[in-house]
Structures are given as C-alpha cells and as structure tokens.
Amino acid sequence: MSSNSWKQYENAFQAVIGSEPELQMLLEVQEYPFAHEAGVFIAETDEVFVTSFPYGDPLDMKIIISKCKFDRQTGSMTREEITNDMIHMGNGGVNYQDGILFCAQGSMTAPSGLFQMARKPPYKTTPVVTGFLGRPFNSVNDVVVHSDGSIWFTDPIYGFEVGYRPRPSLPSQVYRYDPSTRAIRAIADGFGHPNGLCFSPDEKTLYVTDTDRFHGDGSCDSHRVSSIYALDVVCYHGQPNLVNRRLFAMADAGIPDGIKCDTVGNVYSGCGDGVHVWSPGGVLLGKILVEGGCANFCFGRDGEMFILNEKRLWRAQLASDIKGALLRI
What we know:
By secondary structure, the protein is mostly beta strands. The protein contains 2 helices and 27 strands.
C-alpha cells in the first residue's frame, strides 16, 4: 500500500478509509481487459462477477463474463470465464433474488435488455425485459433494484456508436420495470449518456451518472458533461416519480461511471483516476487512486471494496464500519 493511493480533500475522508487503509492487487490478466463493469459481490461464496471491456473487431466484438473467487485465507483470487449465449455484450449487474441481474447491450441480431443469471453452473439464464412496449432498447447499461422489487436501469446509445447495435429507436432514458405486473415506464430523460445509477440508503434519492463526455465512437469532448445528478423519489397518485433533478457533482478526471452509496449516504463513483468519494451533500471528500482509473467497483464485507481496473482487479480495505448500502454487510 502506498500513501499515493489515497488523496484526501476533507477531514471526513479519514472516517471513510480508517487509520490503516490498504490497496492490494488481487488478479491481473494480460490477454484482455476482463474487469470493466458489473462488479457483483456474492457474500455467501466470496465471489465477484465482472464483465470485460468490449474487444475484437467491431463486427465481431465480444464481452466475457468472469466469476472471480476470493480466498480469504491466502488473500489470492482465481477466475473462471462463463460462456452465456443469451447475454450479448454484458455490462452492468446487480444482486437479484438468488442470482444476478445482468444488463445485455445486445448485438445487431440479439436484443438488449435485462437477464437473470444463476450464480452457479450451468448458469441458467432467463430474460426479464427486452424492450419498451414493442420498441427495442438501445444498449442497456446499468441496473439497480429498489426494496419494493422494482428494477431501475439506464439505456444509452453506446452500442450504436461503437457499431454493434442498430440505429436507436428510443431516447437515452432511465426506466422503471415492475416484474410483479410487467409494467414499464420511462421515468427520467434529458441525459446525454445515462450510465450508472444507485439509490441513497433511504431510497429517497436516485443518483444517475451522465458520461456524455466520452462517446462510443471514441470521441472525447470536455465541453460535454461528466457529472452525477441527484433526483428526489416522490409518490404521485400511488406511483413513484422523480423530481427536483439537480447537479450533484462533476468528475474532474475521466467520467463518473459506476456509482454506489454506503450506509451513511456517502456517494462513490468509478472515475478516470480511481474511485471518488463525495459526502451526501456533494462535497468531494477524497479519492482512492488507481492508475488507469476505474469504470466500476463493488463493496464486499466489513469495509472492503473490489475495484475493477480493466486488466487488474484490486481490493481496497477501508474503515471496517463502512458498509455498502446495497448489501449492508
């Protein structure tokens, strides 16, 4: 662990990282960037499911799902590649029931949508939702599950821009899907490229990252946004709605991609130089610096975090009382 791994802006960052923070590289794969998105921690087995960065020819690009097993006795990690013919160009993911809910960005012939995959072989997979009232999704990117069972997800146009999805037939939006009734709603729009999303611990706020600064064609325009927006969750006529959209924070390095909260409301996002941490009020507390940046990450148990760094996967040990708002362990 190097002191260069931790950059403090506010004293409150000390309560996040604790007195003896550690950063350890667990796994490195040189062949391809295996650890890009998802980051789903399975507490029962100490496994982290990840998806790779797209690689290969634009007409035959692929993304690999990997199951990474952390051995707490040795501090080492092993990896198993998972072949799944239903999840095309997998991206974000979240714990769901006894399995994992994956975002499939789709291909020219396979649909984009949400798919539930079992976490044990043979990894049975079932489609959950693959379109909006008869219109195909663009490239479903990230997903979160509300405590009421509803599923919220983003749908930017990265697949079309890269070249593996048809021309979009929907705006770039945030959706809410109720699996109990199969009702689906477009619940927020006006984003350039809506990407990561998460709820505050009390679920009164939804955070959405907009990564419009980077487009799928490889262009980068720093005049475009690389920001996190906060939206209040309110109930009108018995249904949840999003109001009071406001700028929460702007990432100064790269783009804010994956996003999570801890149980006290701090907001974490994977950015161009590592994981940034903001207070619930939007003040940048500090950064966990990782060379090459971080697209996504997940909390483990007792203050640990698994950081996805393309060809490397890291484990950060924060203060032991820090718990991710998703699993609260």
